[in-house]
Specification:
Helices cover about 80% and strands about 0% of the residues. The termini are far apart. With about 180 residues, it is an all-alpha fold. The chain folds into 2 domains: about 80 residues, no CATH class; about 80 residues, no CATH class.
Length: about 180
C-alpha cells in the first residue's frame, strides 16, 4: 500500500505540482496584460483538458522516474568503488552516493524535460480554445477569499473584477 501511495504522490507531483509553471508559461506566451484574468483562464483551460493532461502526466511520471532508477543502478558500481577507497566504515556509502547522483540527474535533467513535455501537451491541447464561461464563473464563485483576491487584482490594474475576463481575452487574441 505504501508503494502505491508513493507512485500516486509522484504522479500528482507532475500532474498538479507543475500547474503554476504551466500558468506562468501561458502568461508569457500570451504576453498577458492582465495576469489575474489570464492566469484564471489558463487554470480553466487546464481543467477543461484535465483528462488528456492527466494521461500525459502519467506517461511523463514514468519517463521521469524510470531513467532516474536506471541512473541509480548504473551508478551503484562506481559509487561502491569510490567508497571502497574511503577509509573507515562506509559500507552504505555507495548506496547513498548512487541515490544522490540519481536525484541530481533527475532534478537537473529529467524534471525540466518533464515540464517541457507537459507544456507542449498543454499548449497543443488548448491551442484555439476559449475558456468555458461556466467554468470561469464557477471558479470566480469558488470562495469568498478567491473572489476578493480577484477584486483586489482587478483594482490593482484599474479594472473591475467582472471586466477582467474581457481584458484577458483581448490579450490572448493580440498574442496569437
Amino acid at each position: 500500500m505504501a508503494g502505491l501511495m508513493r507512485i500516486l504522490r509522484a504522479f500528482l507531483r507532475v500532474a498538479v505540482g507543475l500547474i503554476d509553471e504551466v500558468i506562468l508559461a501561458y502568461l508569457i506566451r500570451t504576453r498577458s496584460e492582465n495576469p489575474w484574468s489570464d492566469a484564471r483562464d489558463a487554470l480553466v483551460l487546464y481543467g477543461q483538458n484535465a483528462r488528456p493532461l492527466l494521461v500525459n502526466a502519467a506517461v511523463i511520471t514514468l519517463v521521469t522516474y524510470a531513467p532516474a532508477f536506471v541512473v541509480f543502478l548504473v551508478m551503484l558500481a562506481p559509487a561502491a568503488a569510490v567508497v571502497y577507497f574511503i577509509p573507515g566504515a562506509w559500507s552504505a556509502g555507495g548506496f547513498v552516493f548512487a541515490i544522490l547522483f540519481a536525484w541530481a540527474v533527475k532534478a537537473a535533467v529529467l524534471e525540466p524535460f518533464a515540464l517541457a513535455c507537459l507544456l507542449q501537451a498543454y499548449f497543443r491541447l488548448t491551442d484555439g480554445q476559449a475558456p468555458n464561461p461556466d467554468w470561469v464563473a464557477r471558479l470566480d464563485g469558488a470562495s469568498a477569499k478567491f473572489k476578493k483576491l480577484g477584486q483586489r487584482a482587478g483594482e490593482w490594474i484599474g479594472v473591475s473584477a467582472g471586466a477582467t475576463s474581457d481584458a484577458g481575452a483581448g490579450a490572448a487574441e493580440t498574442a496569437g
